[in-house]
Design goal:
Structural class: alpha+beta
Oligomer: single chain
Largest sheet: 4 strands, mixed
Radius of gyration: 19 Å
Strand content: 25-35%
Distance between the termini: 46 Å
Shape: elongated
Helix content: 40-55%
Length: about 120
């Protein structure tokens, strides 16, 4: 990442373990897209009244050259499950964003090998 990770916790007590979990998952995103410019993570508990449990909302804003990937995920009860599902969704979106470039070059390689074999 070119710009440091930004973590915002809203309506949640600041916790070193939550921030460490977010930093671990964000560091792994570089495996799926090498040109991530910035990543912003917002974790919040909405101020809506519910009968049971807490609802956690995780929002990821990831900027890559040419586009911005936004993932928003809600999960009841477990904050770590919400983080896991949101980062998995971001991973899939990053892979989908990077795939057309990979396909463009891999499709040409077998043709070049066939042409080289035909020439000899």
């Amino acid at each position: 990442m070119q710009i440091p990770l930004q973590i915002t916790l809203r309506n949640i007590a600041k916790s070193a373990s939550v921030e460490a979990a977010i930093r671990r998952r964000a560091a792994k995103l570089d495996r799926y897209h090498r040109r991530i410019v910035s990543c912003r993570v917002v974790v919040e508990i909405p101020s809506r009244h519910k009968q049971q449990g807490k609802e956690f909302v995780v929002r990821l804003d990831i900027k890559v050259p040419g586009s911005e990937i936004v993932v928003s995920h809600d999960h009841n009860v477990d904050l770590y499950a919400a983080l896991h599902e949101a980062f998995d969704a971001a991973q899939r979106r990053l892979e989908a964003n990077a795939r057309p470039i990979v396909r463009r070059y891999t499709d040409n390689r077998p043709k070049r090998l066939d042409l080289a074999a035909a020439e000899t």
